[in-house]
Design a protein that fits this description.
Blueprint lengths: L1 H4 L9 E6 L13 E6 L10 H6 L3 H22 L4 E4 L2 H11 L3 E3 L21 E4 L8 H11 L3 E4 L5 H7 L4 E5 L3 H10 L3 E3 L7 H8 L4 E4 L14 E4 L4 H12 L5 H8 L4 H28 L1
Helix pairs in contact: 5-9, 8-10
């Protein structure tokens, strides 16, 4: 991928925007163009989650990662220097950019289509909890399944991914594993669940915002992007470690807390699409104006 990206011919462009959690920022922009990178995370598999990815890989892949990761890091840092301005999707990601690339980044949270979700009357709400999203190892879906097996409480799981069969094997009689579903089904369950269970550490995490836009609170691991979108006691509850016991404790605290669906949905509105467009347009305009002014100064000199 780095080699392929470097072959893109961008000679005719004045502005390049890369949106990435991988090597897309490695494109070679013209000398007088400006390059803004909207970064969802530096490559997780060579930086902050390298050891997790390596431990879960087979022997061949693990051996390859050990040999290649060092050189990928060197390329990634070199490619990072080609960017004029970084914008991170969360303060969590901005901290990683500062750590791995030595660059500052402004923060603009991703756009969420808030208007696509609804808040339903209490009478339409059901008695199950919901876990939604890709079922991959770093999101730790097995913890939620094990916790609700212990609770013998209802949990609906929506999403595909590499751990789907593993989750189905773990699921007890109170857990419904639906796999991938159309948006209409997900939307229905968002608004009718008791709360969303979110056991992983995300860069930002759009799923919690979608649940909140539906008026439902979030029970989330208290690290990463969820800490920037969930307000304890107002829009959700945090647990401090990724363990079954911590999730059980958080569910009990949730049951003792009263949440107001309309207040939750009103808070989620701040993550809407129009806000994103305004903030990103301001970033682009500022960057282009600065480049134009600098180019003008060079011509005068």
């Amino acid at each position: 991928m780095p080699l392929a990206l470097e072959q893109l011919d961008l000679r005719d462009y004045d502005l390049v925007i890369s949106s990435e959690s991988g090597p897309a920022k490695g494109v070679v922009a013209p000398a007088l163009a400006v390059h803004l990178c909207y970064c969802h995370s530096p490559m997780r598999y060579i930086w902050n989650m390298y050891n997790e990815y390596r431990e879960r890989s087979g022997l061949i892949k693990r051996t390859a990662m050990t040999a290649i990761a060092h050189y990928l890091r060197l390329w990634d840092v070199t490619a990072a220097a080609r960017v004029d301005q970084y914008v991170a999707n969360s303060h969590t990601v901005a901290a990683r950019i500062r750590r791995y690339y030595g660059r500052d980044a402004d923060v603009i949270n991703p756009p969420v289509d808030i208007k696509a979700f609804e808040v339903v009357p209490d009478a339409e709400r059901s008695d199950y909890f919901l876990m939604a999203g890709e079922l991959v190892a770093y999101k730790r879906p097995e913890l939620a399944v094990q916790a609700f097996n212990r609770l013998q409480a209802k949990l609906v799981v929506i999403g595909g991914g590499e751990m789907l069969e593993r989750v189905r094997q773990l699921a007890g009689p109170t857990i419904t594993v639906m796999g991938s579903q159309p948006f209409a089904v997900l939307r229905h369950h968002y608004s009718r669940c008791q709360a969303l269970i979110f056991p992983g550490e995300e860069d930002f995490g759009i799923v919690p915002v979608e649940a909140m836009a539906s008026g439902r609170p979030v029970i989330a691991y208290g690290r990463g992007g969820a800490t920037e979108s969930v307000i304890p006691g107002v829009t959700g509850v945090f647990f401090s470690e990724q363990s079954v016991e911590a999730i059980l404790d958080a569910v009990r605290r949730f049951e003792r807390t009263r949440f107001e669906p309309k207040q939750i949905a009103a808070y989620a509105a701040r993550f809407g699409i129009s806000r994103f467009k305004i903030e990103m347009t301001e970033q682009v305009d500022r960057l282009l104006n600065a480049r134009t002014n600098n180019a003008g100064l060079r011509r005068v000199v």
